[in-house]
Structures are given as C-alpha cells and as structure tokens.
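User: I'm putting together notes for a lab meeting next week and I want to include a structural view of one of the chains we've been expressing. I don't have a solved structure, so I'd like a prediction I can at least talk through. The sequence is below, exactly as it appears in our construct file.
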Amino acid sequence: MEVVRVPEFNIYLADRPGELAGVLEALAAAGVRVTALSVVEQTGNDVDHKGLVRLLGEPVEAVRRVCEGVTDTGAGPVMEVEVLVVSLGEHAGRFREVAVKLADAKVNVRYVYQCPSPDGGTVRCVLRVEDTDKAEQVIGELARLSEGPNTGLGGAAGAA
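Assistant: Thanks for the context. Below is the predicted structure for the 160-residue chain, given as structure tokens.
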C-alpha cells in the first residue's frame, strides 16, 4: 500500500452533450494523460444543474493550462484541490481497512472514488479528507503494518 499527494482538478460543466468530450479533447491535445476521472451530477437550490468533473492527469502543468482555458469558454468554476491517492494492490476491498483507520483517527473523508493504476495492474483510491496530514500519517502507518511479517491480513481482510 502506498499513499501520495496529488492535485485534483474539479471542473463544473454545463449539463449538455459534448461538454465532457470537449474537456477531454482539450486535455488530449495538450498531451495530458488522464489517470483518474469521476463525473457526478450537481443540483440544488444554490447550484445550477451542472456536471462536476474530478480528474487527475499528467503533466500537471498542462492540466492546469487546459483548466484555465476552459473557463474562458464559459465552463467553471474550476478548482484545484489536494487529494491522496492510495494504491491498494489487487484488492479493492482493502479500502475498508483504510476507512476504518481514518474513522478511528477521527479523519473525515469528504469523498472517494476508485481508479486503475497507470500500468493497469493495481487498484487505487482517490480520496479527499479534511485533514490531509493526519490521513497521510494514518495510511502510512497502515501500509507499514501490512508490509511487516505476520500482518494478520491473510484472512478475510487480506482477501477483500
């Protein structure tokens, strides 16, 4: 298990055909490799009906430039936030362990979504938390425990 901090880009788009495709085409044209993507619908009294695109991509500077450009076309707002990416190996169910440890440490998880690793071999979770430093420490400790001898993860938790 590994945890890293990365910037995530949140882009609000009009809820109409072609908006997402336009952003993805702009990213591709800029040479960006999108490594994680989540799209959800945003509605509410104070929010126009929009889609919220959350994405991770490389190179980060190119993603940032594209995001600045889409605001010129009327999309937005665009926000850049820090998230944690946790590599779970081949067992997506291991996120349960992460969630339990974060809860025990009183770290609130604002949202989470899964994505493949760039090499396609392992599952990763992208999560935004209220206390990134504390969450990174808790997940790092869990990773060290799971790598040690006789981790106790061989049963149902290890097979999850």
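A couple of points you could mention at the meeting. Confidence is low (pLDDT under 50) at residues 150-160. DSSP finds five helices and six strands in the chain.

User: Perfect, that's what I needed.
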